[in-house]
Amino acid sequence: MTYPGNHQVCTRCVMDDTAADISFDAEGVCNYCGEFLKRLDHYVDPDPAARQGKLEALVAKVKEQGRGKPYDCIIGVSGGVDSSYTLVRAKQLGLRPLAVHMDSGWNAEVAANNIANLVRGLGVDLYTHVIEWPEIRGLMEAMFAADVRDVEVLYDNALAGVVYGQAAKYGLHYILAGSNMATEGMRMPGEWTWHKLDKRNIVGISKQFGGPKLKTFPAIGTIKYAKHILIDRAHWIAFLDFIDYRKDAAIEELQRDYGYKPYAYKHYESVFTRFWQGYMLPRKFGYDKRKPHLATLVMTGEMTRAEALQKITEIAYPSQRELDADKTYFLKKMGWSEAKLEDYLNRPEVRHDAYPSEAALWERLLGLYRRLNLKVGRLR
Description:
The structure is a single chain. The protein is mainly α. It has one domain (48-287, 319-371): HUPs (Rossmann fold), CATH 3.40.50. 51% of the residues lie in helices and 8% in strands. Helix 3 (81-92) packs parallel to helix 4 (109-122), helix 3 (81-92) crosses helix 10 (247-258) and helix 11 (271-285) packs across helix 14. The chain starts with a strand and ends in a 9-residue tail after the last helix.
């Protein structure tokens, strides 16, 4: 089957050949589908009773290891549905989480309101780490100048640095994440993203393109991450995989009990993420991150394939007016002209590893961990 742009599309989900490593069988079903089903079987127990038992065992461990401490776990909150519902369920199960938020200066107002309503309604403490605007803007400018594919590595790296840092501060062993198989289980094509713990890449690009030194940016690299895992014994848990997580039901509960406002697409609680994933990334690199997210919802039965295919033909915004508003906001906040944006979008990609990187070190250490049967937390 072909779809807009003459791309071959999987006959079971909506992944297509914009993913370089995709392959199709005789029926047109892609390898991403098979991989997803194997991962789903590995991470999510289909037996409700067994899953409940695993959840109860996890909660007991978290409570025990948090005994005598002000909190027993860390939960990173963005204002999105997955992290919000993680916080709600953790409290319902009697846990004492510290909610942690990383403010990069791009929070949508609705995200800030969602977080405020949640922490107030649940009675939990919130720690917010703010990266000073001149610093994050300078780092973004360097990433743009470098023409690398994953500018969002800045946000993902900083978030990991903040949550692991807070876990170490309070001596906590559990970070409960909103990552889950139900809404994001389909893997992201490797060429669409970059290694999230590559501090050396961030620093090297910033230095080469006149960016700032890191002061308020809570960077984390491979060695520091290994220390958190092996010495601090911090575990990054995909918490929602322990429950029967249904996104629509979660949104309904959040709206009813906490005045929650949902977003059009996953991760759109950040204005930059909306504009990057919804406009800049497809224009410059040809990657539409909605595809694996929508494919996941198709595979888990939360959306029909026809509905997902229709969404992909539309712009990644509720309306052209909202896209235009975000474009105007981005240009003003970054101090860019329309001409500068067009120049950036029309330049060719430069690979991340054309600059200093610790991705190779990560792969070597990860291989060693696996050979020694050490359990490494998943960072997503």
